[in-house]
């Protein structure tokens, strides 16, 4: 579970990244923080802190002031559980 640059993410970060990727694949747009909160059953500050951490570590990118602007920067094939879900990582999300 590592980025091409060699940076590693934790198991928990991997779950968030996989959820964001899967949600975008299924719905054609990235999730809102409220969607992530409902899925993981955590508080809004917990979700926000994780998003900030993922962005600071270079795993995602967001556009300031633009809702649902999360873009995954990690190669999809390095994300956990996507193979188990049967999602083809070669298909573009956009």
- Strand order, biggest sheet? 1-2
Residue windows where pLDDT falls under 50 for at least 5 positions: 1-5
Structural class: mainly alpha
The arrangement of helices and strands along the chain is: HHHEEH
In percent, how much strand structure appears in the residues?
A: under 5%
Number of strands: 2
Please give the count of helices: 4
In angstroms, what separates the terminal alpha carbons?
A: 23 Å
Radius of gyration: 12 Å
Shape: globular
What integer is the average pLDDT? Answer: 84
Q: Characterize the biggest β-sheet.
A: 2 strands, antiparallel
Helical fraction:
40-55%
Write up this protein.
By secondary structure, the chain is mainly α. Helix content is 45%, strand content 4%. It has 4 helices and 2 strands. α2 (33-40) packs across α3 (44-56). The two termini are 23 Å apart.
């Amino acid at each position: 579970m590592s980025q091409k640059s060699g940076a590693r993410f934790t198991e928990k970060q991997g779950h968030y990244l996989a959820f964001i990727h899967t949600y975008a694949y299924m719905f054609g747009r990235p999730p809102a923080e409220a969607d992530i909160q409902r899925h993981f059953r955590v508080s809004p500050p917990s979700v926000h802190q994780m998003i900030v951490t993922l962005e600071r570590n270079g795993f995602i990118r967001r556009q300031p002031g633009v809702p649902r602007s999360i873009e995954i920067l990690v190669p999809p094939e390095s994300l956990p559980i996507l193979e188990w879900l049967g999602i083809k990582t070669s298909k573009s999300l956009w």
